[in-house]
Amino acid sequence: MANYVADFTAELARLARSAKLDLLAYLLEIAHLEAETSQRRGPQPPPGP
What are the pLDDT tens digits along the chain (49 aa)? Predict the structure, then answer.
């Protein structure tokens, strides 16, 4: 799932940047980095009560 999110947010960031939507592109790049980091860490157990 993190791989899909990383790919999708990267593409959206490129589209936003080409449309001169710099803040949106920046936020999407942050989401992309977070998804890549999550992907490298591997699956995490769900938070418990």
Answer: 889 999 999 999 999 999 999 999 999 999 999 999 998 987 777 777 7
